[in-house]
Amino acid sequence: MLSVSLEEAVNQLSEVNVRPTVEKDKPLNEMAAVSARTFSVEETQKFAAAVNDPARMATAYAGVVGADDGGNNIVIRGNAPNGLLWRMEGVEIPNPNHFSGLGTAGGGISILSAQLLANSDFLTGAFPAEYGNALSGVFDLRLRRGNNTKREYTVQAGVLGLDLAAEGPIAKGYTGSFLVNYRYSTLGLISKLGADIGTGDRVFQDLSFNVYLPTKKAGAFTLFGFGGLSSSKINALTDSTKWEYEFDRYNDDFRSNTGAAGLTHTMPFGRKTMLKTVLLVSGYENKYRTERLESSSNYLATERDNASYQTQKRILSSTLTYKPNAQHTFRTGLIGTQLRYDLTQRSWEAEEQQMLTRVRVSDRTSTLQAFGQWNYRLSEQVTMNAGVHYLHLTLNGTSALEPRGSIRWGFAPNQSLSFGYGLHSQLQNPATYFVLPASQSSDTPSPTNRNLGFSRSHHYVLAYDRRLNSRADGPPLRLKVETYYQWLFDIPVSADKRDAFAITNSFSGSADRNLANNGHGRNYGLELTLEQFLHHGLYFLVSSSLYNSEYQGSDGVWRNTRWNGRHAQSLLVGKEWTNGSNVFGLNLKLSYYGGYRDTPIDLAESKRLSQTEYIDNQSFTEQLPDYFRPDIRLSWKKNKLRSTRTLSLDLQNAVNRQNVYGRSFDTSSGTIKTFYGTGLIPVLSYRVAF
Asked: HEC string of 211-227?
């Protein structure tokens, strides 16, 4: 026996980064062959002005543009922002954003913490069969597990809020782990200290968590969820000499609360079969009240809007995946959802000069979804996906059977062609089903839209993908070109008159009128992406889109949709420099796209009714000026033996450009005024992980 003694040497070594090999040019879901990509938490933390928000990050991708500066709503290939589906751990979740409205898919600030997210998928068309109740896009979010060997903590303070995160093993010798994050808004903290933060305040807080509980024989359980509370209050100016705009004389009180908690169970049966079951309970509450100061003498406040929306969902989802060999993968599932609504909405009627009840209901319903899909690798070069999705709404018995399919052909080394097709359907905003008739002479009027069907769309996508180089020591340079055509049908439009209204031009998909599924729409375009994934500290993403988005109202006239900007370009580039334990980062994002459409204002009618009135037969004939915004992110990271510190500064709209947001009639001056998006916003943040 030979004994060898070793004497330790004390040396400070440079950091070692251990990274998994991730094919970021391919989605995690192998059933998605077109219009899909993976995104990582690392990207949300690096991208300029993304501020750890998946939706804001996605605006760098081809075919995706922001709907407005003040929030993270996104427009995908000319579709309305509410056509987006959010999923977490394989099941639909409520809109995970603060300051959100009923039926919307975005808001002001993301509730979800980047601390919890793992690599996830983002899809923009022709989705595989497992995705239902969506027309424009899907965020398929996955959660990472906490460290199961040691405790770790993260503290982050910045302009947006104070974040506290913790993760670690649940018990010694057990492979389970926990991960939890809490955040409170910075403005809320300042307000609590008694400081004056202006005429209005926006306060929010959120909590998100993921607990992994494996067993030896009964599979693995995961307890996950998130919750967010947000409120905004603006007080009217009680000095009429300071009323520059109409909204200066309004009191606004807005509250939006969202939460979801889920339990997953994953059970393998041998090496070829996996069953995943998810039970999710979620709730959403939205309340707002608006008052207008009517007189400059006594400042009497009269109510203009008053709404209270409450929805609850219980979802049970079960998915079975069977992979008999390397060539075939089968996946099938059932999703049952129970929904409960408690909705009330009253608003000002200018013609009658009084408040009218638009929505009043306390009801429940349910949906059933089922799907089956097959992935078949005919050879190393050819892969086929085929499936079908079924959606049923018990409220009115509406059903939809939706075929889906795609094929990918690798016809040459590092090159491929793909084609995908999907028929997709989406429920309407809950409040839209229960709109009361304009004539409310009855004591118990019946909703006008209870029998409204789904909005539907055919998606066709043709894609060309090429790796321009192949590196053994890093990711490739990728070129991707996609062309698409979407035919929308059964779109809700006015039922009792011929006009230009269509629900596709709404942020939330809501309308206080009698509707029928008689509208149509079409979106088509060409997208180009050139992308270098992070390599030696450098990455870039160049995307360009040319598209057209049109619709047809009940009058049968084809018009531009509100979202038809015709073109969109984005440049995203970043570089990191390492100097010992210091890492310096510079990230730039340039966004340039065509302005959205607007409708001319009828000045005479607006003066008569003291509110903005539009010329209906000229809907969306005006185009706002082109939109341009540069964003810059500067960062410094210090790696120490037991901690990592990061200081970052995001400059949103770094040149303070005045992008036109829209126009409206101002009753104070009797003129039409132009409103602009947000100017320069610095977002400073300091993060310590230990």
From this structure: EEEECCCCCEEEEEEEE
Distance (Å) of CA 519 to CA 179, 499, 522, 554: 47, 11, 11, 6
- Report the distance separating Cα 441 and Cα 446, nearest Å: 11
User: What does DSSP assign to residue 241?
Assistant: G
- Give yes or no for a contact between 374 and 406, defined as CB atoms under 8 angstroms apart: no
b vs e for 63-89, b when ≥16 Cβ sit within 10 Å of the residue's Cβ? bbbbbbbebbbbbbbbbbbbbbbbbbb
With cut-offs at 50, 70 and 90, classify the pLDDT of residue 160.
confident
- Amino acid 193: pLDDT: 56
Count the neighbouring beta carbons within 10 Å of the beta carbon of residue 270: 7
Q: What is the Cα 505 distance to its own chain's centre?
A: 17
Distances (CA, A) of 178 to 142, 165, 200, 492: 15, 11, 37, 45
Helices first, then strands: H and E counts in the chain: 5, 36
How far apart CA 199 and CA 193 sit, in angstroms, is 16
SS3 242: helix
205: three-class secondary structure by DSSP: strand
CA quadruple 317, 34, 391, 87: dihedral positive or negative?
Answer: positive
Closest among 355, 342, 372, 238 to 302, alpha carbons compared: 355
Indicate the average pLDDT of the chain: 90
The pLDDT assigned to 241 comes to 74
DSSP state of 432: H
For 669-685, how does the pLDDT look when each residue is reduced to its tens digit (9 = 90+)? 888 999 888 889 898 99
User: For residue 45, what are the contacts with CB-CB under 8 A and spacing of at least 6?
Assistant: 52, 114
The 3-state secondary structure of 244-275, one letter per residue: CCHHHHEEEEEEEEEEEEEEEEEEEECCCEEE
For the cut 80, the answer to whether the pLDDT of residue 197 exceeds it is no
The closest of 186, 136, 132, 183 to 160, measured between CA atoms, is 186
Residue type at 170? I
CA–CA gap between residue 26 and residue 480 (Å, rounded):
11
Contact 212, 176 (CB under 8 A): yes
Place of tokens 């000045």: 603
CA pair distance 106, 73, nearest whole angstrom = 4
Q: How far apart are CA 676 and CA 670, in angstroms?
A: 19
Checking if the pLDDT of 2 tops 60, the result is no
- Please answer whether residues 486 and 524 qualify as being in contact, where contact means their C-beta atoms are separated by less than 8 angstroms: yes
Q: Which two tokens stand for residue 410?
A: 């690798």
What CA–CA distance (Å, rounded) separates 583 from 347? 54
pTM above 0.85, yes or no: yes
Q: 599 near 618, Cβ under 8 Å?
A: yes
Instruction: Give the residue among 402, 561, 549 at the shortest CA–CA distance from 493.
Output: 561
The predicted model gives 595-623 an average pLDDT of 92
Report CA-CA distances (Å) from 104 to 73, 159, 210, 605: 8, 25, 25, 30
Residue 455 sits at the vertex; the CA angle it makes with 449 and 461, to the nearest 5 degrees, is 175
| Cα separation values, 408 from 32, 54, 431, 670, Å | 10, 27, 41, 59
Nearest to 454 by CA among 375, 506, 392: 392
Contact predicate 68/75, CB 8 Å: no
Highest mean pLDDT among 31-45, 417-431, 676-690: 417-431
**Is 10 a residue whose pLDDT tops 50?**
no
**Model pLDDT for residues 517-569, shown as the tens digit of each residue:** 999 999 999 999 999 988 888 999 999 999 999 999 999 999 999 999 999 99
Amino acid at 474: G
What band does 45 get if pLDDT is binned at 50, 70 and 90?
confident
pLDDT at 8: 40
Structure tokens at 602: 């009828």
